[in-house]
Amino acid sequence: MGNLVFEPPRDGPTLWEIGIPDRSAAEFYIPDPDPKYINKLYVSHPDRFRQYGLWERYTDLYPDGDLVYTVGVSDYKTDWFFAQVTRKKDDDKYEGTTWQIKFNLDNANPTGTYKLRIALATAYVAELQVRVNNQNTNPALFTTGLIGHDNTITRHGIHGLYRLYSIDVKGALLMEGENTIFLTQPKSSSAVQGLMYDYIRLEAPPPNNSTKNI
Questions:
Q1: pLDDT tens profile 141-172
Q2: Using alpha carbons only, what angle is made at residue 45 by residues 29 and 41, rounded to the nearest 5 degrees?
Q3: Is there a domain that residue 182 lies in?
Q4: Distance (Å, rounded) from C-alpha 157 to C-alpha 151?
Q5: Whole domain around residue 159: which residue ranges?
Q6: 40, 116, 196, 207 - which has most CB atoms within 10 Å?
Q7: d(CA 83, CA 86)
Q8: Is 24 helix (H, G, I), strand (E, B) or coil?
């Protein structure tokens, strides 16, 4: 058998992308640990995720509102938290979170079909709901349903079972100017429910309405 060359799925040209498609969340922002949990063995170690309690830092950084990432302005290395986890409330309960990706389209194609590809590095008793330009759309454009028993977050890991979702986004949902994709993880019975992204890409409609791998 000769060499096998993998061609990742693609329908159209890339409009924007977040992350590196390597099945890991290591390239995203990993915060400093809470001093009371710090493991000195990993203070200067490249595997910054090997610290206890990093999931709690999301609430510290986003106490009132969730992460908003603006394409062309934000940097995934500093502005995309490595795990979409729950937020702790004052009553020691938790709530789900909704992240936003804001981006501009110079020329929206109302009759074409865009493709949103979301690769997850791991998930733990979580659900990912995707909405476009309306956070309250019900049902969501896409949902994974309940997924994951990887325990990656609690075991200080950075990847687990890989999942790839390819989501059709009708051009009529988009507009010229600013658009927003809402990523909601609603499950909230514990501190460590959530998911890690590997890579996100939005593709324009394929040229001449044809679909191919490139």
A1: 999 999 999 988 877 778 889 999 999 999 99
A2: 120
A3: yes
A4: 8
A5: 14-206
A6: 196
A7: 9
A8: coil
| SS3 state at 147 | strand
177 within some domain:
yes
Please, is 121 exposed, middle or buried when counting C-beta atoms within 10 Å of its C-beta (0-12, 13-18, 19+)? buried
Answer yes or no: is 137 within a domain: yes
Nearest alpha-carbon partner for 135 in 102, 165, 100? 100
Assign residue 136 the CATH number of its domain: 2.60.120.260
The total number of structural domains in the chain stands at 1
**Predicted TM-score of the model (pTM):** 0.89
DSSP-derived pairing of the beta strands 14-19 and 68-70? unpaired
- By C-alpha distance, which of 117, 113, 114 is closest to 166? 117
pLDDT of residue 99: 99
Cα separation, 149 vs 76, in Å, equals: 26
Q: Which residues on neighbouring strands pair with residue 202, listed in sequence order?
A: 16, 116
